[in-house]
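# step 3/5: fold
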Amino acid sequence: MTGRLGLLVLTLFVSAGTASAKVKKLKEAARPGDVKPGKSALLKSPKGMHYFLRVPKKYKAKDGARLVVFLHGSNMNGLSYLRSFEAKRWAHDAILCCPNGETGKGDPYGANNFTFASAPFVAEITKLVQADFKTTVTYVGGHSQGGFLTFSVIMHFPELYHGAIPMAGDCWMQNEPNLWADKPDVLARQKQIGIAVIHGQADPVVRFAQGQHAFDVFRAMGYPRLRLFAPKRLGHQFMLSPVDDALDWLDAMNGRSEKTSVKLAEKWAKAREYGWALETARALTAGGNKSAQTRAAKLIARCEAAAAKAVVAMRKSMEGDAAKWVPEWLEFWRVYGRTEAANPLVEEYEKKRAEQRDTGARLFQQASGLLRSQKKDEGHAVLRKILAEAPCTYEAYYAWKWLSEK
């Protein structure tokens, strides 16, 4: 059983590999601005976290560049991941920042680990780099242990980031997005972040179900910029992951690389991924050139037409058994939730969610206690009660999920 009853703490410390003992050490720099274009350096933040910083050779202050902050797996270091990015030519035109976990033996080139308290350290480093360089967008990602931490970083510091690539990790229950339901301003900023979850279905270290869980909890809160990359044959290997595809997707969500993004949006619309197409089209309408804006406007109209038909079908489904329409709603919300056509239905749903919230929370706590006590039949009965009495709540996702897995 995944989610709040899962032992997520244990999986935080899975190993991504062994740090190399023989590496060419970099020059040290006092502050990010001291690192010149085409150079990399080792730095240390005021709070004591080491990080490796690479400034692209073609960086120009007047134009700026993407900033990619990437977090390593357990018993590793940031330089290993920085070199992997360079070997694959991922984000080759970006400022690349790879922090080290704050726990280790004091060797920045050795084995290091992050902790549950690492997010503020990563945020501080992000701010330092943003202060010294012109950054057009900022993405944060991480692999394995760093994947878990990525969710923590974007939930607690959403104002710093435009996109995220959590890989081979999960969302700790302390970071599940429903916890910000009483903070609408923070929640709104979180929902602006594109979240590209990457998890191999053949991962033998962190189960794929955990990546699926992370994706699902954000669907259950109506996050519009959300995608799951789930290669069937991918294990836990970092360098075999589709990082380049995830970066292209994030760029499209943010209206960057206009020619590529508009082509991708048209491809997504054809594949009925109207949510991604709509987000890209709106971003291009706001800041693209005239040609991109014209194509984007046509895409928006296409998405709206598809949504109008989907709304009719969704309303009909919601008249039936919640055990069937709850999972259908999760996809409807992700794909059509931001369209004008779907807006009235989404508002109705969210109003009901607010009305049912206390009931859903109370019943979920009751069900969780029964399941922990191995009283499965009683617990499942309460989960069914959630679907009957509070089907629009966040807890209804877990009720449906756990009942489908029993």
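# step 4/5: annotate
The chain has a mean pLDDT of 93.
# step 5/5: archive (pending)
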